[in-house]
Amino acid sequence: MRRKTSKVALNLILLVLGIVTVYPFVWMLSSSFKQNKEIMALQQYLLPQQFITSNYVNMNAHFNFLRFFVNSLFVTIVVTIAVAYTSTLCGFVLSKYKFKGRNLLFGFVLSTMMLPWCVTIIPKYSMIQSFGWMDSYKALIIPALFSGFGIFNMKQHITTLPDEILEAARIDGANEFFIFHRIVLPMAKNGISSIAIFQFLWTWEDFLWPYLVINSQEKQLLAVGLKMFNGQYSTDYGALFAATAISIIPVLLIYLFFQKQFIAGIAASAVKG
Q1: Does the pLDDT of residue 269 top 60, yes or no?
Q2: At what angle do helices 65-96 and 237-247 cross, to 10 degrees?
Q3: pLDDT tens digit string along 81-101?
Q4: Contact 228, 207 (CB under 8 A)
Q5: How many H helices and E strands in the chain?
């Protein structure tokens, strides 16, 4: 009886937390179909009193939403694929190869996760300036190729893969390039999915770094574009909510499509290597 009561209480707590988390997004989506005078009114209603769709047309009239959206999608996809590949490759080397200094190298990777991002932003910004990458997508993509978090998780995940399969492939004459791309990558798809979801979310929502290194408006990303929209057209909240509602669609789709692999990858990465 006590166990059943605890389970019901836990479910109620999770339900309340879920409602508190989801409600702002529901309100934002509903407000994207409201008039500005209704959004600014003292008496608020969850559902629109007068349903309109013009906000989704006006948002592109205020600023080039489609351009910002495509820019963000391009940079995010490239960074996510690159990080997933390099993290899997480094995780494979650190987990399945024995060489001198391996633990020291892995310790260095872990140390990069312990440094606050605000500590590294100034030297990284200076390097971008010295390389001449300012106002270029190189400044957004190349520094993101190395992910200590991704390498750590993929090492933990690939450690669980049986060595017998790799040895059998080597006995059959397969080289390391073939083993990595044809055996390790397919078997590590759950871990790759979890890293891809995290990296996609981080890159898509990144604001400060694109704001610092990208100067041209036509190259700017959506997170910065929404802030520019808010500053220049602060009264058109309906169009701003419409743009924000569309901007979260890619993240939701990525998680919905890779939800099972994400959960399985997190569970597998938790295994001690």
Answers
A1: no
A2: 30
A3: 999 999 999 999 998 888 888
A4: no
A5: 17, 0
